[in-house]
Amino acid sequence: MSENNINNSNVNTDHFDKESVFLREATLDDIGALEQLLNCCYRETAGWTNEADLIGGIRTTSAELAAVINDPNHYYFVYPKTTTGDHDGEETGEILGCIAVDIKTDADSNKKAYIGMFAVHPVLQGKGVGNVILQAAETFADRHLQSLNQPSRLTMSILSHRPELLAYYQRRGYQFNGNKMPFPNDGNNGEPKRDDLELLELEKFVS
Protein backbone atom coordinates (compact mmCIF):
# COMPACT_ATOMS: atom_id res chain seq x y z
CA MET A 1 0.00 0.00 0.00
CA SER A 2 1.51 3.31 -1.02
CA GLU A 3 2.09 6.27 1.24
CA ASN A 4 -0.33 8.41 -0.72
CA ASN A 5 -3.20 5.95 -0.30
CA ILE A 6 -3.19 6.38 3.44
CA ASN A 7 -2.22 10.05 3.59
CA ASN A 8 -5.01 11.11 1.23
CA SER A 9 -7.71 9.28 3.17
CA ASN A 10 -10.49 11.53 4.41
CA VAL A 11 -9.41 12.20 8.00
CA ASN A 12 -10.87 15.54 9.05
CA THR A 13 -8.66 17.26 11.61
CA ASP A 14 -10.24 20.75 11.42
CA HIS A 15 -12.21 20.27 14.63
CA PHE A 16 -10.46 17.19 15.94
CA ASP A 17 -10.72 16.64 19.68
CA LYS A 18 -8.33 14.11 21.22
CA GLU A 19 -10.93 13.52 23.94
CA SER A 20 -12.99 11.67 21.31
CA VAL A 21 -10.30 8.99 20.91
CA PHE A 22 -11.50 5.56 22.02
CA LEU A 23 -10.14 2.03 21.78
CA ARG A 24 -11.58 -1.41 21.30
CA GLU A 25 -9.92 -4.80 20.97
CA ALA A 26 -8.80 -5.70 17.47
CA THR A 27 -10.50 -8.50 15.53
CA LEU A 28 -9.41 -10.49 12.52
CA ASP A 29 -11.54 -8.17 10.38
CA ASP A 30 -9.12 -5.33 11.21
CA ILE A 31 -6.05 -7.07 9.76
CA GLY A 32 -6.07 -5.35 6.37
CA ALA A 33 -6.41 -1.86 7.85
CA LEU A 34 -3.81 -2.60 10.53
CA GLU A 35 -1.30 -3.90 7.99
CA GLN A 36 -1.74 -0.75 5.94
CA LEU A 37 -1.39 1.59 8.93
CA LEU A 38 1.67 -0.11 10.46
CA ASN A 39 3.58 -0.44 7.21
CA CYS A 40 2.89 3.19 6.36
CA CYS A 41 3.81 4.58 9.79
CA TYR A 42 6.99 2.55 10.17
CA ARG A 43 8.36 2.01 6.68
CA GLU A 44 7.27 5.02 4.63
CA THR A 45 8.16 8.66 5.07
CA ALA A 46 4.80 9.81 6.45
CA GLY A 47 4.81 11.29 9.96
CA TRP A 48 7.65 11.73 12.43
CA THR A 49 7.61 8.20 13.85
CA ASN A 50 8.70 6.38 10.70
CA GLU A 51 11.90 4.33 10.45
CA ALA A 52 12.22 4.57 6.67
CA ASP A 53 15.79 5.88 6.76
CA LEU A 54 16.89 3.01 9.02
CA ILE A 55 14.89 -0.03 7.88
CA GLY A 56 13.44 -1.06 4.53
CA GLY A 57 10.88 -3.70 3.64
CA ILE A 58 7.61 -4.18 5.48
CA ARG A 59 6.86 -3.80 9.19
CA THR A 60 4.36 -6.62 9.51
CA THR A 61 2.27 -9.16 7.63
CA SER A 62 -1.31 -10.32 7.84
CA ALA A 63 -0.13 -13.67 9.24
CA GLU A 64 1.78 -11.96 12.06
CA LEU A 65 -1.20 -9.77 12.90
CA ALA A 66 -3.52 -12.77 12.98
CA ALA A 67 -1.15 -14.55 15.37
CA VAL A 68 -1.08 -11.51 17.67
CA ILE A 69 -4.87 -11.11 17.68
CA ASN A 70 -5.38 -14.83 18.37
CA ASP A 71 -2.80 -14.98 21.19
CA PRO A 72 -4.61 -15.06 24.59
CA ASN A 73 -1.66 -13.28 26.26
CA HIS A 74 -1.64 -10.50 23.68
CA TYR A 75 -4.14 -7.67 23.81
CA TYR A 76 -4.31 -5.56 20.66
CA PHE A 77 -6.30 -2.35 20.74
CA VAL A 78 -7.38 -0.18 17.82
CA TYR A 79 -8.77 3.32 17.41
CA PRO A 80 -11.24 2.95 14.54
CA LYS A 81 -12.37 5.78 12.31
CA THR A 82 -16.12 6.44 12.50
CA THR A 83 -18.55 8.51 10.50
CA THR A 84 -18.99 10.96 13.39
CA GLY A 85 -15.43 10.93 14.73
CA ASP A 86 -16.46 9.48 18.08
CA HIS A 87 -17.56 6.24 19.70
CA ASP A 88 -21.20 6.61 18.65
CA GLY A 89 -20.51 6.71 14.92
CA GLU A 90 -20.47 3.85 12.44
CA GLU A 91 -17.02 2.45 11.76
CA THR A 92 -15.67 3.04 8.25
CA GLY A 93 -13.16 0.18 8.23
CA GLU A 94 -10.10 2.40 8.57
CA ILE A 95 -7.86 2.25 11.65
CA LEU A 96 -6.45 5.56 12.93
CA GLY A 97 -4.28 4.18 15.72
CA CYS A 98 -3.28 0.96 17.42
CA ILE A 99 -1.25 -0.43 20.32
CA ALA A 100 -0.53 -3.89 21.70
CA VAL A 101 -0.02 -5.09 25.28
CA ASP A 102 1.74 -8.44 25.50
CA ILE A 103 1.82 -10.12 28.93
CA LYS A 104 5.19 -11.84 29.17
CA THR A 105 6.83 -13.99 31.84
CA ASP A 106 10.51 -13.30 32.60
CA ALA A 107 13.25 -15.67 33.75
CA ASP A 108 12.17 -15.25 37.39
CA SER A 109 8.56 -16.19 36.58
CA ASN A 110 7.43 -12.60 37.06
CA LYS A 111 5.01 -11.13 34.58
CA LYS A 112 5.50 -7.84 32.78
CA ALA A 113 3.63 -5.98 30.08
CA TYR A 114 5.43 -5.41 26.78
CA ILE A 115 4.01 -2.54 24.75
CA GLY A 116 4.47 -2.65 21.00
CA MET A 117 2.94 -2.33 17.52
CA PHE A 118 2.08 1.27 18.40
CA ALA A 119 1.07 3.54 15.55
CA VAL A 120 -0.96 6.69 14.89
CA HIS A 121 -2.22 7.78 11.47
CA PRO A 122 0.29 10.35 10.10
CA VAL A 123 -2.41 13.02 9.73
CA LEU A 124 -3.17 12.77 13.46
CA GLN A 125 0.40 12.74 14.73
CA GLY A 126 1.31 15.69 16.95
CA LYS A 127 -2.29 16.17 18.10
CA GLY A 128 -2.09 14.23 21.37
CA VAL A 129 -3.63 11.03 19.98
CA GLY A 130 -0.55 8.95 20.74
CA ASN A 131 -0.51 10.16 24.35
CA VAL A 132 -4.15 9.14 24.82
CA ILE A 133 -3.59 5.70 23.27
CA LEU A 134 -0.42 5.03 25.24
CA GLN A 135 -2.04 6.13 28.51
CA ALA A 136 -4.98 3.80 27.87
CA ALA A 137 -2.63 0.88 27.20
CA GLU A 138 -0.62 1.64 30.34
CA THR A 139 -3.78 1.79 32.45
CA PHE A 140 -4.95 -1.53 31.04
CA ALA A 141 -1.55 -3.14 31.65
CA ASP A 142 -1.39 -1.79 35.20
CA ARG A 143 -4.83 -3.14 36.10
CA HIS A 144 -4.14 -6.49 34.44
CA LEU A 145 -0.83 -7.00 36.24
CA GLN A 146 -2.31 -5.91 39.56
CA SER A 147 -5.08 -8.47 39.11
CA LEU A 148 -2.32 -11.10 38.86
CA ASN A 149 -0.65 -9.74 42.01
CA GLN A 150 2.32 -8.62 39.94
CA PRO A 151 4.18 -5.30 40.04
CA SER A 152 3.23 -3.03 37.17
CA ARG A 153 6.39 -3.24 35.08
CA LEU A 154 6.03 -1.98 31.53
CA THR A 155 8.66 -2.51 28.85
CA MET A 156 9.13 -1.71 25.18
CA SER A 157 11.87 -1.75 22.58
CA ILE A 158 12.86 1.12 20.31
CA LEU A 159 15.46 1.46 17.61
CA SER A 160 18.77 3.08 18.35
CA HIS A 161 19.56 6.23 16.34
CA ARG A 162 16.09 7.61 17.18
CA PRO A 163 16.88 10.27 19.82
CA GLU A 164 13.57 12.06 19.26
CA LEU A 165 11.64 8.85 19.94
CA LEU A 166 13.71 8.07 23.03
CA ALA A 167 13.04 11.59 24.30
CA TYR A 168 9.29 11.13 23.74
CA TYR A 169 9.18 7.99 25.88
CA GLN A 170 11.46 9.48 28.52
CA ARG A 171 8.94 12.28 28.91
CA ARG A 172 6.37 9.55 29.52
CA GLY A 173 8.46 8.03 32.32
CA TYR A 174 10.32 5.30 30.44
CA GLN A 175 14.06 4.83 30.90
CA PHE A 176 16.66 2.79 29.07
CA ASN A 177 17.46 -0.12 31.40
CA GLY A 178 20.77 -1.09 29.76
CA ASN A 179 19.41 -4.08 27.85
CA LYS A 180 19.98 -3.99 24.13
CA MET A 181 20.40 -6.38 21.23
CA PRO A 182 21.41 -6.13 17.58
CA PHE A 183 18.47 -5.56 15.26
CA PRO A 184 17.53 -9.03 13.96
CA ASN A 185 18.56 -9.39 10.33
CA ASP A 186 16.43 -12.45 9.66
CA GLY A 187 14.10 -11.02 7.04
CA ASN A 188 11.12 -11.09 9.40
CA ASN A 189 11.41 -7.54 10.71
CA GLY A 190 12.39 -5.55 7.67
CA GLU A 191 15.78 -4.93 6.13
CA PRO A 192 18.24 -2.81 8.18
CA LYS A 193 19.97 -0.07 6.20
CA ARG A 194 22.96 0.19 8.56
CA ASP A 195 25.01 -2.40 10.41
CA ASP A 196 24.98 -0.83 13.86
CA LEU A 197 21.23 -0.81 14.48
CA GLU A 198 20.19 -2.02 17.92
CA LEU A 199 16.98 -2.50 19.86
CA LEU A 200 17.04 -0.65 23.18
CA GLU A 201 14.79 -1.83 25.99
CA LEU A 202 12.90 0.85 27.89
CA GLU A 203 11.21 0.24 31.20
CA LYS A 204 8.66 1.97 33.39
CA PHE A 205 7.22 1.03 36.77
CA VAL A 206 3.71 2.22 37.51
CA SER A 207 2.97 2.71 41.21
How many beta strands in the DSSP annotation? 9
Major sheet summary line? 7 strands, mixed
Number of helices: 5
Shape: globular
Describe the structure.
- The structure is a single chain.
- The strands form two sheets. A seven-stranded mixed beta sheet has the order 1-3-4-5-6-9-7, with helices on both faces.
- It starts with a helix and ends with a strand.
- It is built from five helices and nine strands.
- The model is unreliable at 1-5 (pLDDT under 50).
- It is globular.
- With 207 residues, it is α+β, with helices and mostly antiparallel strands.
Structural topology:
Layout: H1 3-7, E1 24-25, H2 31-43, E2 55-56, H3 62-70, E3 74-82, E4 91-105, E5 111-120, H4 129-147, E6 152-159, H5 163-171, E7 175-182, E8 191-192, E9 198-206
Parallel strand pairs: 5-6
Antiparallel strand pairs: 1-3, 2-8, 3-4, 4-5, 6-9, 7-9
